[in-house]
Structures are given as structure tokens and as C-alpha cells.
Amino acid sequence: MSKTVEFYFDVGSPTTYLAYTQLPGICEQTGSQLIYKPMLLGGVFKATGNASPAMIPAKGRYMFQDLDRYAGRYGVPLKINPHFPINTLMLMRAVTGVQLRHPERFKTFIDCLFTALWVEGKNLNDPATVAAVLMQNGFDPNQVLALTADEEVKAALKDNTDKAIQRGVFGAPSMFVGDQLFFGQDRLDFVIEALS
């Protein structure tokens, strides 16, 4: 059986962005398949009683410093979004919709969202900004908006989120290698060990 990493993610998490920049290379180097599992982090927080570390001022300050350290270690750009936290319900429905209906454009789609949020610091709480980002990246905002209203897409995102919670997920990023859960972009060395 081929090795896989199931990557439960929400684009609104800066730690998830960092993991996202590293996982394709990890999977390539270990001969593993990366399986993207969009979920709604707000739904996970609500179900598990968890919250963003940024909601605790001292922890939030530390977390943002630590994220800068990891971005430096990974050699990737990171700008803490001044509009954080972002309500990602519509974004994650769009991500799920593109994955379901246009899988060939999925990677390009999540690339543009992660870049807008965590490299360019754009306000993706604002529909006009989201539309501009989509157009700049070759997506029709009206088609994407239609996906967010698609009942099958809504159900798929809810199902992914429910399954994540059932499997013990309490935050993002969460990665599974087999039945082993690894939480956080600072646990990627354990993901590599599990795949090796």
C-alpha cells in the first residue's frame, strides 16, 4: 500500500500555510501521496472547545515570533495578516467546490488564497478583495461564488470537518499518516519519520 499524508487544513491558519509550503516536498522525498482535506477550522474549534492561540495576547505575540522563525528556517515568505482572524466559511466552501468540480485547478486555487493571506496580507474578509484576487489568478469570481452555494459542496465541507473531529482533530494543520495524528507545522519531522 502506498504511503499517504492526509492534510486537514483551513487557509485562515498561518501555521497551516507553513505546513502547506513544506508537505509537497516531504511527500516527494518520501515517495508519498499528499491528500488535501479541506475543513472548517471554526467548526472544529466550536466542537472541541479549542481556540486560536492568538486569542491569548502573550501566547499570540509569541506565536507570531515563532512563525517568523519557522518561515526563516523553511525559506518561505510570511506576512502576518493584519486582518487576522479571517472568517473562512465562504473561502473553505470555495476550496471544497474547486476540489470537487475542478480538481485540475485545485492546487492553483489554494496557492492563490494562501499567498493572498500569508504573503500579501490581503483582507479576504472583504468580498471585493476576494474577487480581485480570484480574477488576478484566472478564476471567475461568479463561478466560484456559485460553488459556495452548491448544496453538495456545503455537505462535503461539513462531512470533512465532522470526520476530522471524529478522528481527534482539534486544530490546524492536522496530518494523518495511517491512524497517527500529527498536529502543527512544528511536527513535520515526525511526519517524515512516520513516512520513512
UniProtKB/TrEMBL annotation:
Domain of life per record: Bacteria
Catalysed conversion reaction: 2-hydroxychromene-2-carboxylate = (3E)-4-(2-hydroxyphenyl)-2-oxobut-3-enoate
Keywords per UniProt: Isomerase
EC nos: 5.99.1.4
GO terms assigned for molecular function: isomerase activity
Domain DSBA-like thioredoxin: 4-195
A UniProt-annotated Pfam family: DSBA
Family under the similarity heading: Belongs to the GST superfamily. NadH family.
Name of protein: 2-hydroxychromene-2-carboxylate isomerase
The species this protein was found in: Pseudomonas fungipugnans
Upper classification of the organism: Bacteria, Pseudomonadati, Pseudomonadota, Gammaproteobacteria, Pseudomonadales
